Input
Amino acid sequence: MYTKKYIAAGFVDCPFVRSQSSNRRDAMETVPVSKFKATCLKLLTDVKKTGRSILITRKGEPIALVTPPPPPPRKKKWVGCLKGSAEIVGDIISPAISEKEWEVLER
Output
């Protein structure tokens, strides 16, 4: 399994955990399960706010990894979303009916 040396260093050498930086400040936080149970909501809020994962351990052995949620998908902007989906057919400058057919002018 994982040695205490790796956990104390702030990273675990496994496929689902990769250290993005060698800076110790950016290393993953390790929390005993008893502390996690006592401060669960605060720790979950911190994970979401900072974007850093927390490794939960029992007797020095990792039992869970709490990671932040992925970023929400970007919404498409509505301006220009229909670009290229319509085709102009015919004359769009002149009126649709002649001036003689306007009901307003008949009065």
